[in-house]
Design goal:
This protein is of the alpha/beta class. The longest helix has 18 residues. It is built from six helices and eight strands, in the order βββαβααβαββαβα. α3 crosses α4. Strands 1-2-4-3-5-6-7-8 form an eight-stranded mixed beta sheet, sandwiched between helices. The radius of gyration is 16 Å and the shape is globular. Helix content is about 35%, strand content about 25%.
Length: about 220
């Protein structure tokens, strides 16, 4: 379903994975990678949003460092992905998301949501506070707490697992108190519960969270 395109961002030109729905699109969704790059799983998520009627685009942030980075889920690749994330920082990915939103609008999406997983959950949050998407849905973003005092400019939803050793529930509850207008859900699941290629995958939590995500996108995007 998907194809690779070029995306010109203020941070530089990168690749992106684009999936286009059949018929008139309901809107657009920027899909933001984990620390593993735009790999098989992120492409599958992007394709699924297209199947649900949205033009979906996953920017390849790691292209700023090296092209073609698509990692699996071993301790070695986790360490490799974290190295790239540290090297890349936060500003360039947010600029890339801005370019991705503009690209989707250029392709006919009147409204655009942003959603992301893991590190991408943090970039989703920063997109909500620093850009102007029509909705933002962050999945288990470990860096959200460190930027918790920023104010979202868009309707925002968050999903966390209460067994996530990387994100204590005390942090999640503090985010809830700081941002009462943000919908914050937690599930009896671990970090990465939406990824069906990881050992931490939780089918029930994934289904419930995605159901809420799609309802949220339908309300704010179309």
């Amino acid at each position: 379903m998907g194809e690779d395109i070029r995306l010109k961002s203020a941070a530089g030109e990168i690749g992106a994975y684009l999936a286009i729905p059949r018929g008139t699109p309901r809107g657009g969704i920027v899909v933001i990678q984990e620390i593993f790059g735009v790999n098989h799983h992120i492409k599958a998520v992007t394709d699924k949003f297209a199947a649900d009627g949205y033009i979906a685009l996953a920017p390849r942030f790691f292209d700023h460092i090296k092209t073609g980075i698509e990692l699996g889920y071993t301790p070695d690749t986790i360490a490799e992905g974290r190295k790239y994330v540290t090297e890349l920082g936060l500003d360039k990915p947010v600029q890339d998301v801005d370019a991705a939103i503009a690209e989707l609008k250029k392709r006919g999406a009147k409204k655009v949501a942003v959603t992301g997983f893991c590190w991408g959950g943090t970039i989703t949050w920063l997109s909500a506070t620093r850009l102007a998407p029509d909705a933002a849905i962050a999945y288990y973003g470990g860096g959200i707490y460190g930027t918790k005092n920023e104010k979202p400019k868009a309707p925002t939803m968050m999903h966390f697992g209460d067994k996530d050793m990387h994100i204590p529930m005390e942090h999640v509850n503090e985010i809830r108190k700081l941002h009462p207008d943000v919908q914050v859900f937690d599930y009896p699941a671990d970090h990465g519960f939406h990824c069906d290629e990881r050992g931490s995958y939780d089918a029930a939590a994934s289904k419930q969270a995605m159901g809420r995500t799609l309802e949220f996108v339908k309300k704010h995007v179309g």
